[in-house]
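Class prep. Protein, please:
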Amino acid sequence: LQNDSWGKQYSHALFKAMSHMLCIGYGQQAPEGMTDVWLTMLSMIVGATCYAMFIGHATALIQSLDSSRRQYQEKYKQVEQYMSFHKLPGDTRQRIHEYYEHRYQGKMFDEENILGELSEPLKEEIINFNCRNLVANMPLFANADPNFVTAMLTKLRFEVFQPGDFIIREGTVGKKMYFIQHGVVSILTKGNKETKLSDGSYFGEICLLTRGRRTASVRADTYCRLYSLAVDNFNEVLEEYPMMRRAFETVAMDRLDRIGEEEPPRHSTAAPVPAPRGLQNPSA
């Protein structure tokens, strides 16, 4: 090729470069003529393009089969970039990672948007099914009016707390009450007495009824999967079902009495009433 024209030398050099770059063979005998060289390079380009398109479509198909996991991965990449940008310490990053793993379990859904597009009966059916374990383990719901249970469940919001997190701090203004789906929490009072609550229990209703401040602190001992109920939603539901308000008030007064055994008596705006069977929660 040393004595050939510049164009022929360039064509053969390009042919060799493309052969090595694309890793596509050209048979037992290399093309010799210029026409053969350019036709072979054209076939290499077409073959490589078809291969790339096949791989791209296959990858997109695989990703579409688990779009919720892909959304989780994309979301967590943003979280990692956020942590790097703010130079968060390693232990904090680890807690954030563990929180996301327990909260979303590798999949992310826009549940609020999905349920919002459904009809009200279908939405209620799904919520009742998703919270079936909570209802089954909670005496408050076991013998209650099914309409009350549905009204309550539709107002709940799912939350996750890590071991050592203070869910409630004594003396603060209460804006939520909590139902324990899974996990163990400790009720802490000024007398340093701890009361354990686990699956099927609830707490935080006292200040929602008395409109006062928190009478005790609540700390998560394990990873806790809870459902929270905001005070406005709490009052809205109980206005429709006044008999259930009495059940909440009875348990709240019992808990206040237990706290009063260690501290000076605290007065509540809730009037004591007989407690329905199955509603005597042993927690404080």
Q: What stands out?
A: The radius of gyration is 32 Å. Residues 72-104 form one domain.
